[in-house]
Here is the input.
Amino acid sequence: MSLRVLSVPFPFVPLRADPVGGAEQVAGALDRALVAAGHQSIVIACEGSQVAGTLVRLPRVRQDDNTHARNQVHRNVHTAIVRVLGEQRIDAVHLHGVDCDGYLPPPGVPTLITLHLPLAWHADAVLHPRRPLTWLQPVSRHQARSAPEGTRLLGAIENGVPENPFALATRKRNIALILGRICPEKGFHDAIEAARLAQMPLLIAGEVFAWPAHRRYFDERIAPRLDARVRFVGVLRKARKLRMLAAARCVLIPSCAPETSSLVAMEALAAGTPVIAYPSGALPDIIDHGVTGYLVRDARAMAEAMAACGRIDPRACREAARTRFPLQRMCDAYLDLYQRLAAQVADHARAVAVPPIHTAHADFAQAGRDSGQVGDLAFRTDA
Here is the structure.
């Protein structure tokens, strides 16, 4: 069955071919996978976005904490969703933004919400949607296990990353690398301290979004500590990013956020590069301590692990990424889910084989009966 899927990534930043944010990476990969499989992908995103399918452009707005500006963006997104749904048949809507409660589609079309960020960061209207035909998708088993009682989730679809063509073919350099969204909870300041203790040069790669708290963090805690051995190189994209990941001695992830997944860790392993991380959220499920990296508790322990990272076999890192986090497996799982969501609307009365729903701390079978389950997927009947 040919599908027409409407996707809405986080609407405040452009969706590019190689974005910084994990949610944007997943949204972009699924857009490309839909087109490659012969389906139609329609993406609502701000101007400047690059998509494989059809882009419905939103005007770009300043990234700040202005409530009026945020509300206006949400109104723009909701208007665009309603317009697309009114103009053509859509089989499924896929929302990726933590703020998606501000622009949920009108009732009718099956809607999937992927929970890219920690569950506690989502509004109650997202975690307990009253809109019919709405499902919540966790990105890792850890995230599903940590759900509060009564949160109704589909079975996890683990994030995935592509293979790195420079893995094992690029000479390792005596540098550590940290990359991603530069903000307080990602612990870039701890990476600087660890690099100084380990006397290893550090490259800081990533984007400082214009949110005031992010700018203050960079200006006050990162920029003053930059020098010849601790350098900020901005956003790494495409081949430059892949080469740098493969050349690094190690990748540092001193995050204090309850990580739902970590595409950075997965990309590092795919490059044959060990990861040294704090055991936050799902990271212990990704890193095999002593085999593909090290899990540590503070900057001093991170420095000690940096000195020991030469003991990690790059081939073990790459093989872990190949077998545990392949991008194609993630894309196939989502495309299969889109098909089954569309089938729910095609015939409500027909039993459809779909991923099992997980209800935190509750009996699965009873939860299905209580929700009006069709097949193994909860079909929401509450208005």
